[in-house]
Amino acid sequence: MPRIAVCSWSLRPESPEDLLRKVGECGLSAVQLWLDPVRSWTWKPDTVGGLAKASGLALVSGMFAPKGEDYSTLETIKQTGGVRPDATWEANQKAVEGDAIMAARFGIPLVTFHAGFIPHDQADPARGVMAQRLRHIAETMAARNVRVALETGQEDAQTLLDALDEVNEPLPEKARVGVNFDPANMILYGMGDPIASLKRLLPHVMQVHIKDATPATTKGAWGDEKPVGHGAVDWPAFFGVLRDAGYRGDMVIEREAGDDRVADVRRARDLIEKHWKV
């Protein structure tokens, strides 16, 4: 069975010690680590590394959050998300260099993030700029033996597939960019059926997020994130696609809403274990 982990930011930890405690309360021993607090020394790297080693906590992947992202509305994130904005690109380059150092220090093999809204039109000048920036990030991470995967949701599956081909074509195998597939994001952003999208993107999937959502009822609005099993994701079909493909990547539970994150993560863990064994 694939390893089950939880996103560190989902648990809203106040310190590395608090993160370790909450991961334990979830009944888990693996985490996807938000790297930015460690890079900035808000969390001391020696403390994080020491606690992980002493407790046996597995750091399965990292997450890089591009500077200046505003998730207030779909329109604000379209304008500010990922590596698309010119105003934040220099700062994001520096952040990626630092996050690559931290990932290598902890032996983290994969870092994920949202690229930003990739234009569907291949003739759009912004698309070429984004491809160039994504290649730079992939090469920066690969220099420290870290791979990169793009979070799904901000574009449909075909646009992401085409963009991956464009980004990866000149890159060596060890630097090629993959996908962190989040079925809920496809629903939240209104970017297509999660199961059909997973089937199309499957050859590139390096990690999956376990998250659920219901679609928006108003055009141009967000969908609603829900506890896993209470949204629109067809979990039996989702796990069936992965199982049939022999998926061996990690399953990382993400929860970004709700007041009892630990309980929600535990329920998600139980759902994974139930459906994977069917």
Give an account of the 3D structure.
- The chain is an alpha/beta fold and 278 residues long.
- It has eleven helices and ten strands.
- An eight-stranded parallel β-barrel has the order 1-2-3-4-5-6-7-10. It has a two-stranded antiparallel ribbon with strand order 8-9.
- The longest helix has 18 residues.
Entry summary:
The chain has 278 residues and is of the alpha/beta class. The chain is built from 11 helices and 10 strands.
Structural class: alpha/beta
> What general outline do the C-alpha atoms trace?
globular
- State the distance separating the first and last CA atoms: 12 Å
Q: Estimate percent helicity.
A: 40-55%
The assigned CATH architecture is: Alpha-Beta Barrel
* CATH topology value: TIM Barrel
What is the alpha-carbon Rg in Å?
18 Å
Number of domains: 1
The number of helices is: 11
Summarize the topology.
Layout: E1 4-7, H1 16-25, E2 30-34, H2 36-39, H3 45-55, E3 58-63, H4 74-80, H5 89-106, E4 110-113, H6 125-142, E5 147-151, H7 157-168, E6 178-181, H8 183-188, H9 194-201, E7 205-210, E8 212-214, E9 224-226, H10 235-244, E10 250-253, H11 261-276
Parallel strand pairs: 1-2, 1-10, 2-3, 3-4, 4-5, 5-6, 6-7, 7-10
Antiparallel strand pairs: 8-9
Helix pairs in contact: 5-6, 6-7, 7-9
Record keyword descriptors for this entry:
278 residues; alpha/beta; TIM Barrel; 8-stranded parallel β-barrel; two-stranded antiparallel sheet; 11 helices
